[in-house]
């Protein structure tokens, strides 16, 4: 049995609790929020009658002595939550982003290493079936190595609340999903970025609702990202739309069920080489999928077996570095190098 305290009982906590109730052997023994009534409401909603309710994480951890902490707080509070969890010898699973600054990200990853605790991030776009299929297909070498990766994200949600007031809202709040998926699918090691942000006349956000970025992912791979939180009409998938160009063909994915690939044939027809469809294999039984549920299951398995989860902080920090480097580039108007991050 794994006992868990969840901290942060806002709207996002529902996705965590919906998934957690499906994991055998996992018990939510405490709920923490600055608003105790909000925590009590979650306890009633999910029939957690025995859960300890509190406004102080340290106090609830002292009382419950759990195995792990689920962190669903705002990013600015993430470092304090992490340090508290590790000080109480707890493993930690945290909502994205890993931290609100590069320094805090490094501090959290280092604290997890010193504490010898499992630390992972809910980077759930990796747990999408077609992301797994693309990675496996490219690894097979069927169309050669990826050279160019292009992703478009155009969605226009009216969130209300803090998002519409925050700076760098697209890059800081959403783009890491696409950045992490790109890095994963082509096994990229980010080395540099040039990024621009702007606020279109039709925007209802304070700053940074639209951006373009061009990343060097190493090994001759370039990744371009174009996105907007205020592009009404012809909405893309939340998982973006993709074109990946490789040495001997291409993959296109609509971010949903439409996944196709073509391979170049040794025949030229006028100006163009002939291309033919090539099947992208189905999911392998070993592929990890399932969004929040898949990541929580992976986290529990890692704790139980003493292994590392796929979305471990020491790896996810590389995707977060892409976000902060893109923000720096947008603010300075210059290309920003992305330093090698701690990995494992």
UniProtKB/TrEMBL annotation:
* Annotated signal sequence range: none
- Coiled-coil segments on the chain, per record: none
Ranges for the GFO/IDH/MocA-like oxidoreductase domain? 131-252
> Single GO molecular-function term?
nucleotide binding
Looking up InterPro entries in the UniProt record yields: Gfo/Idh/MocA-like_OxRdtase_N, Gfo/Idh/MocA_oxidoreduct, GFO_IDH_MocA-like_dom, NAD(P)-bd_dom_sf
Q: Which domain of life is it from?
A: Bacteria
Query: Any idea where the Gfo/Idh/MocA-like oxidoreductase N-terminal domain is?
Result: 2-121
Against PANTHER family, the record matches this protein to: CONSERVED EXPRESSED OXIDOREDUCTASE (EUROFUNG) (PTHR43708), OXIDOREDUCTASE (PTHR43708:SF8)
Please identify the protein, giving its name as recorded: Oxidoreductase
Per the UniProt record, the lineage of the source organism begins with: Bacteria, Pseudomonadati, Pseudomonadota, Alphaproteobacteria, Hyphomicrobiales
